[in-house]
Amino acid sequence: MKTAFLFPGQGAQTVGMGADIAQAFPAAADLFGKANEVVGFDLRKVCFEGPAERLNSTTVSQPAIFVTSAALLEVLRTNSATANLRPDVTAGLSMGEYTALYAAGAFSFEDGLRLVHRRGEAMQAASEGTQGTMVSIIGLDEDKVRQLCDEAREGDVLEAVNFNCPGQIVVSGGIGACERAEKLADKYGAAKAVRLEVAGAFHTAMMSTAAEALQQALQQTRISPAASVRTLANITGEYYATTDEVVDGLTRQLTGPILWHKCMERLLADGVEEFYEIGPGRVLTGLMRRISRRTKVTNLRDLGSLKALIEA
């Protein structure tokens, strides 16, 4: 039976995440301490205590989710009851792909955290230089969403960028174009359109300066995809095979669409039966329910869910 570890992306963060596992498991506490040294500020305190406004900022939320997910993973690896639980494949939603590559052994914890921290800084800087946002369109298929974008664009940037699951596609672009898309969604039969609380138009050309900065950081990092644990690329739904593919995939991620639905369909087609979502929140568990109702995802997000698995 094949096993997949899945890792959430930006938006999964909540104040208090990681505090209970750090208190209960020294291995998790050590990782938060190491993270503070890498990023150069008290990331642990922001995760555990907030304030929410700081945790939710792009520059903080991305490394915060990476570290919390890595801490949960560390408990699985170091606890005798779960040490034999290992993935055949890993995948992560957008920023979560960095955690997936770390879990697969493609780079060290420190290097992964440095990359994610740089990614958040670069995306924030690109957002401040543009006027963009994102809107989740609920209840439409891909064709309808593309038609909606075509009508609402009016010369601005507006693209379908997150193909999360059937009936949930996120569009991203200029604020004016996104506002028009919100208003037109009803005309195309959408159940609703929800503006996302993000700093900018992620996964579009408006993030091109961030992609350039990130590519430089990636090229300076030691990356070696593991042959034993494969990682799916968000932008293709194919497995990474080489270092160059990882650098290209993580760079293109910032300006191109995230094909999460396709990635999960690929894992199911390849015979993966056991899925674990490791990290704050339950976003990926919910998406899988929409993709394949009969597929169960074990959600590991806090001390309670970890204990339930350890004591099972």
What are the defining features of this structure?
single chain; 312 residues; alpha/beta; 5-stranded parallel sheet; 4-stranded antiparallel sheet; 14 helices; 9 strands; 16% strand
Question: How would you describe this structure to a colleague?
Answer:
There is one protein chain. This protein is of the alpha/beta class. Helices cover 49% and strands 16% of the residues. It has a five-stranded parallel sheet with strand order 7-2-1-8-9. Helix 2 (26-39) packs across helix 7 (109-128) and helix 5 (58-78) runs parallel beside helix 6 (96-103). The protein is globular. The mean pLDDT is 97.
Draw up the topology in text.
Blueprint: E1 2-7, H1 19-24, H2 26-39, H3 43-49, H4 52-55, H5 58-78, E2 89-92, H6 96-103, H7 109-128, E3 132-138, H8 142-153, E4 158-165, E5 168-174, H9 175-184, E6 192-195, H10 208-219, E7 230-231, H11 243-253, H12 260-269, E8 272-278, H13 283-291, E9 297-300, H14 303-310
Parallel strand pairs: 1-2, 1-8, 2-7, 8-9
Antiparallel strand pairs: 3-5, 3-6, 4-5
Care to count the β-strands?
A: 9
Radius of gyration based on Cα positions: 19 Å
Secondary structure tally, helices: 14
Cα distance spanning the termini: 19 Å
**If strands are numbered along the chain, what order do they take across the biggest sheet?**
7-2-1-8-9
Main structural class: alpha/beta
Global morphology: globular
In helices, the fraction of residues equals 40-55%
Oligomer: single chain
What order do the helices and strands follow?
Answer: EHHHHHEHHEHEEHEHEHHEHEH
Give the mean pLDDT. Answer: 97
- Poorly predicted runs of 5 or more residues: none
- Major sheet size, sense and barrel closure: 5 strands, parallel
Kindly estimate the percentage of residues that lie in beta strands according to DSSP: 15-25%
